[in-house]
Amino acid sequence: MADPHRPHGRRSAAAADFAVVGGGIVGLATALTLTRRRPGADVVVFEKEPEVGQHQSGHNSGVIHAGIYYEPGSLKARLCRAGASWTREFCDEHGIAHRTTGKLIVATDPGQRARLDALYERGLAGGLDVELIDGAELRRREPAVTGIGAVYLRSTGIVDYRQVCRVLAEQFERAGGRIHRGAAVVGIHESLSEVGLDVATAAEPGHRERRYARQLVVCGGLQADRLAAMAGMRPDFAIVPFRGEYYRLQAHRSGLVSTLIYPVPDPALPFLGVHLTLTMDGGLTVGPNAVLALAREGYPKGSVDVRDLADTLRFPGFWPLARRHLRTGAAEAWNSLSRRGYLQLVRRYSPDLGMADLLPEPAGIRAQAVQRDGTLVHDFLLRRTARMLHVCNAPSPAATSAMPIADLVVRTVLEDGPR
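^ thats the sequence. predicted structure below, dont judge the formating
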């Protein structure tokens, strides 16, 4: 959208060199990378929440993924492996606790055997430290887990990504960057010389202030499509939010397993299934499922946002997506409503768990980009103009891959430059 307040070609002396919208882990990693690649540059982050990492970055399983699910040599596989190494090194450098727990991907019926074998072969081809074990060995290692076989992936780990976000923010600010917390971008106006941002703050309700930047990077996550539309880009996709619900096991069950336990995933879906995850506070969580969210940022059970729901239902791509996955969607919705149904998903590989073991745990919401024909976007989706780059889809596991994703984004911004 053109900036009506600034004549074309005239640049504001107060304009920042770079602005980043979004204080999640990808936005913060991007901002920090910009300060390192352009020492002395004025880099500013606008985050609408009072603190960083409040949405997808702070509502996830906390897993440091190894990249076994992706085609060896693919961009996602390379970014995941590089990101896992970076995450551990960053945590070690800054005193952030993390653990290498390993992961078992468990097949529970013969129909999953071929997919399990394919995952094992993919892990080997990708240079990962993987092991294929039978049901007896699985039971020996994890007595509470039942299956006909499993792939053991040694390099998977866990961390608290909210803490990673806080330290990224600290490092960015120490490098001279600025973070405006509680600052929502409500308008984006691109001219030939800069980008104008209308910013509303919680401290001054109803007041908007125009800020300027020579180049803009938008890491909008759950609001990526709206921010792109706000900038006049006419996005050819929409964010369809999926709610991932978790439970925490009773404290006396926290030692049920010694490693992460995952089901064999459905290759037609971008979700990994309900799994058992060790947490950095010593607990054990179950989840997430994947059910259509009725609010993009409504984490309590039963949250509904009329605008969010209307946008989903109005989007042409939602209906072919819903038809294509009708049976799966209905099952996920039922399991969301029925704690007993949810429990059955876990009992496939951990049959000793009961209803009393499941305690409430905060949910997460995933930003899933969907094309107008209903196709799920599994890859990176970047949209570029002369002075803007919008990260419209950063595929899972974006938290693990945050710094390599940021490196890709920054290289694109700096090498292309303003057009």
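The radius of gyration is 22 Å.
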